[in-house]
């Protein structure tokens, strides 16, 4: 679980079955376990109206566990980027009564929520559960480039190379934490880089 | 007679100065010898002649130079001005407000004439004379918010009100004290204030939001905020922090008076009539220490405030690196005598 932090930092919950006509699950890696656990409390036939989209982790595990839930649709995607066109269309065509469930890494939850917001879905209506890595997506406030899977504090911007303090300040619209130059006032000060977001 | 606009810069050679009259009208933010957060909001009503409150939208001798600096910032980084798609109507509300207030307060410099939806706006200091159709964006060279805020001093945030909260959904922000509109746009009141230390625990934002969501049309409110800036630089954005941050390491006992500036924000809050949004102008006033200490009462107040500021606040305001140099310099101007309460100069 992520430690308690400032108000803009997202807070995740525990998935629970919601009343709705259609249920869309987007998940990666160990997020699959959150769905499998939720299934235990789901009413009979719940997954008859469900679509599960899964981005397996590097170990490729948990696919069978999700298929065993027998959702109406099941889709495997190699990456979030490859999922985007399909997800955009699904959300654009969605009707009232669609419920969205996001489970897995912070990067996955944040990016899927970003697409949902663009489709006009209110963020408070989305079920989320964090599982797995705490690695962060970070936007460099200086060059605006996004660096994926940041695990260290400070972290180097993959675009402009500045050494950045990874703040807890988070933008849902950008789906990223803010990175601000940590040694702007004196570039010769190089604080040690520690692995903190695992 | 009108205002004599100064030719000056807020970057490179930093020729910005305040005239003696502008030093005396500076909105000094401390009325006692200590500072802590408070919901210091009061009705935004007209104040004494010659003060920055003489008009509700203040135009001063720095107007032309500030607008030139804004144009330079926008040319470099257009993301400093953004408006989410549902905010265009609020942009027209703001255009009306600023044209009306500037024409009312400074008729020798600004003229607004209306014939139904056909409006003519004359801005003499900037050499603008435009006729347009109110509500029709295609008749202006920019969107309505950008058009009028390229001609108005201060930053502007337009807040949408829904779900009992305020949402930062549009803004022109080029003179900010280290926050990013591009990052914060779309956030609610609590989210964009999330990085501010101590104030959440004191319940400041809950009370402030309650107050702001109840602001009525025609009854604006205001508060002062402050920080310090090295050199008279308007654009102290996080975007450019790696460019201006090194300035903070250049303060020496010899140059404190010239380099260190008190930066005061006069924030006002106005209900907008058509969109029901709130516009939040953040008007920035700068004064260097040499100018400020010409008023001995201000020198004493400021010395005591900076000396006794909690470390967390000093750090948040970015004072840490030069605070001791500044306090040492100010201490020589503080004879320890009591200061009269109140904001005004001696």
Describe the protein's architecture and organization.
The complex is a heterodimer of chains A (198) and B (346). In chain A, the strands form 3 sheets. In chain A, strands 3-2-1-4-5 form a 5-stranded parallel β-sheet, sandwiched between helices. In chain A, β10 (163-171) and β11 (176-181) form a beta hairpin. Chain A is an alpha/beta fold and 198 residues long. Chain A is built from 4 helices and 12 strands; from the N terminus they run βαβαβαβαββββββββ. Chain A has helices at residues 31-39, 63-67, 80-92, 106-118; strands spanning 22-28, 50-55, 73-76, 98-104, 127-130, 136-140, 146-150, 152-153, 155-156, 163-171, 176-181, 194-195. By secondary structure, chain B is of the alpha+beta class. Chain B is built from 13 helices and 10 strands. Chain B has helices at 20-24, 63-76, 88-105, 144-149, 181-184, 189-192, 204-213, 241-244, 256-259, 289-292, 296-308, 311-316, 323-331, and strands spanning 42-43, 81-83, 110-115, 118-123, 128-133, 155-162, 165-172, 221-230, 260-271, 278-288. Chain B has a 7-stranded antiparallel β-sheet. A 3-stranded antiparallel β-sheet of chain B has the order 3-4-5, covered by helices on one side. The model of chain B has no long low-confidence stretch (mean pLDDT 94). The A-B interface holds A 6-9, 139, 141-142, 144, 162, 167-169, 171-174, 178, 180-181, 184-187 and B 79, 180, 182-187, 190-195, 200, 238-242, 245-246, 248-249, 321. Chain A: InterPro entries: DmmA-like_C, DmmA-like_N. Chain A: Residues 137-180 form the Dimethylamine monooxygenase subunit DmmA-like C-terminal domain. Chain A: GO terms for molecular function: 2 iron, 2 sulfur cluster binding; metal ion binding; oxidoreductase activity. Chain A: Pfam families: DmmA-like_C, DmmA-like_N. Chain A: Keywords: 2Fe-2S, Flavoprotein, Iron, Iron-sulfur, Metal-binding, Oxidoreductase.
